[in-house]
Amino acid sequence: MSQIRAVVLVSGGLDSATALALARRQGLECYALSVAYGQRHEAELAAAARVASALGAREHRVMQVDLAGIGGSALTDPSIAVPEAPSEGIPVTYVPARNTILLSLALAWAEVLEAGHIFVGVNALDYSGYPDCRPEYVEAFAQLARLATKAGVQGSPCRIEAPLIEWTKARIIREGMALGVDYGMTVSCYQADREGRACGRCDACRLRRAGFEAAGVPDPTRYQ
């Protein structure tokens, strides 16, 4: 009997690596999808390739989308500075509609693969306040998948899995380490250098460092 397939969105960061490890633990045949969307650096895509290989993805595919052409985010427009101090509201590192676009690509590939699951490492607790990381958003996208795909209308919709959505960063790290994830190969920083070394100052770096501290384990992050 063939394995059930899953498409896993892999950004190269800590959370997506854990999501891939959790999908593999379920015995799913995993297809890793990363998206080059015009982000500030390519270090996270190199990290995504490492993660997909190390965690046993059947295939790793990188798709191209020009979100830099839309702009409006510090992650795609180099003229907008990445904040290095906490701020109120939705930060300028939010990329307009990014998760909707990435999940749509994953959904399309899942249809071709006849995959039963899509895994995404979004988190609603230790995150930066993005609107597309909330449980109600994930459920709304799952409803879209049921209504707007061939598989959905034929009664076998692809399930949208967000296993980390209500976990603290510390729990994510502990669970991932129990599954053998080497977080030293991941890159979370919004402004990592060409070698993937983190700035240690942006929101992503602060959340990541605090997670390792709360988990009580050494931080393997390489800093500039």
Walk me through this protein's architecture.
This protein has a single domain (5-215), classed as Rossmann fold (3-Layer(aba) Sandwich). The longest helix has 16 residues, at 98-113. With 224 residues, it is of the alpha/beta class. The radius of gyration is 17 Å and the shape is globular. Helix 2 (43-54) links the parallel strand 2 and strand 3 (59-64). It contains seven helices and five strands, in the order E-H-E-H-E-H-E-H-H-E-H-H. Strands 3-2-1-4-5 form a five-stranded parallel β-sheet, with helices on both faces.
CATH level-3 fold name: Rossmann fold
Distance between the termini: 48 Å
Instruction: State the secondary-structure class.
Output: alpha/beta
Q: Any idea of the CATH class?
A: Alpha Beta
CATH architecture: 3-Layer(aba) Sandwich
List SSEs in N-to-C order. Answer: EHEHEHEHHEHH
User: Count of helices?
Assistant: 7
Helix proportion: 25-40%
Identify low-pLDDT runs: none
**Per the principal axes of the C-alpha atoms, what is the gross shape?**
globular
Instruction: From the alpha carbons, calculate the radius of gyration and give it in angstroms.
Output: 17 Å
Q: What's the domain count? A: 1
Q: Main beta sheet: strand number and arrangement?
A: 5 strands, parallel
Q: Quick one: CATH superfamily?
A: HUPs
The tally of strands reads: 5
- What is the strand arrangement across the widest sheet? 3-2-1-4-5
Report the average pLDDT across residues.
95
Give a short summary of the structure.
This protein has helices at residues 14-25, 43-54, 98-113, 135-148, 150-153, 169-178, 203-215; strands spanning 5-9, 29-36, 59-64, 117-119, 159-161. The chain is an alpha/beta fold. The chain has a five-stranded parallel sheet with strand order 3-2-1-4-5, with helices on both faces.
